[in-house]
Amino acid sequence: MKPHIVRSRASADDFPRSDHLATRIAEVAADPVPVPAEVADMIVNRIIDNAAVAAAALRRRPPTTARRQAQAHPYSPGATVVGLPAARRFSPEWAAWANGVAVRELDFHDTFLAAEYSHPGDNIPPILAVAQHAGRGGADLIRGLATGYEIQIDLVRGICLHEHKIDHVAHLGPSAAAGIGTLLGLDAETIYQAVGQALHTTTATRQSRKGEISSWKAFAPAFAGKMAVEAVDRAMRGEGAPAPIWEGEDGVIARLLGGKDAEYAVPLPVPGEPKRAILDSYTKEHSAEYQSQAPIDLARRMRSRIGDLGKIASIVLHTSHHTHVVIGSGSGDPQKYDPRASRETLDHSVPYIFAVALQDGTWHHERSYAPERARRPDTVELWRKIRTVEDPEWTRRYHATDPAEKAFGARAVVTLADGETLVDELAVADAHPLGARPFGREQYLAKFRTLAEGVLEPAEQDRFLDAAQRTPELRADELDQLTVTVAPDVLDSAPSTGRGIF
Questions:
Q1: Given this model, what pLDDT does residue 422 score?
Q2: The whole model's pTM is what?
Q3: Which end of the chain, N or C, is surrounded by fewer C-beta atoms within 10 Å?
Q4: What angle do CA 172, 158, 165 make, to 5 degrees?
């Protein structure tokens, strides 16, 4: 890996195209390096993971809305839409849209946290949709996904967006475009233009994850994937992008990020170096924002020590700056303590999550967010006794580059009514690669089975899991097997979404 220094440049500067970040990304995408076996295995795990969380979300309103929009765009050869029969094909950008919303709806798939946040599994829907439409096989898909993960994770390592209130999907548009470029074997110049267009069309503010968080939280990454597909299509037809997109005088760095004096270092593979970044990412055992994964496990561990939760006077979670200001009381969002808040808001409230995990000793992607669960008087009482504070040591560990030091946990200080204090801490979630129960293939398969129960017939579960585990060997005419089909009555039970334009 070699850091690429990125800063704003005046229009009059002698700044050759070869030094643009978009050029370096395009060169990485166009480099035909083999995919290491362990990377391919992890990509298979994440394909399974995405399908699991998408299946569990199919009957919710946002995925239903996106699916019905995609159904208005049938196309041949086209791509599959999760839930629908594989023989039915849709325009790839709309398939990417529908599948992206289903994957993100429950906030239950993989994550990578560094200077910025990310869910790199969001690369899978657009790259898979194009692979199916373009007649590519499993090996090509694996190569494209290795690039998508690599570029998004490398951008997340080097460029902080949330500091300037820009949503993290601004790293997803370029990574998905680069991954599609690898999948299709495009030249670096075409990928360069696609990356620039994808970034330009996917920068937006973080209000989608602030205050009253709405269903757009699930749609935002799907929109970035859809834009990436369209950007590659235009670039292949010869259309260009704003350039230099990151470094220009009125580019992203100068006007949306740190300004004309800011400098960023983005680590990228050198020519001939394999793309291994996916191995540094991690998935979720619990359907909640990643920085609440370790607190959930910590709460489950502490509940027996505490005993009678009614005796709790206060709980303070000492944690990182990110956790404190994004999902904690440091956000200043009163909605994080509102029992009538949306599921999306509760998912981003670590005081709520810690309270429910303490009371229930478990976490469920539906029951833990049910309105009647959030409004239980004893839950509301406990919830409002919990606050977060930033601890510089947890902030340091959040940003650590040493995997053994990097942590996303908290120290909980529980004060009882009689003055007794109980203290415990957990650095990483149990399912983290360094946690008590790291996720391997067995755990990914079990997660799929759990989330697919009651949604997919057992035979369909078996069929998908067999195909997914053979992804690197799948022929082009077999790639449509990387979807799941549910019985019509299951989709019929989804909520009404009304009619739109098309």
A1: 98
A2: 0.93
A3: C
A4: 65
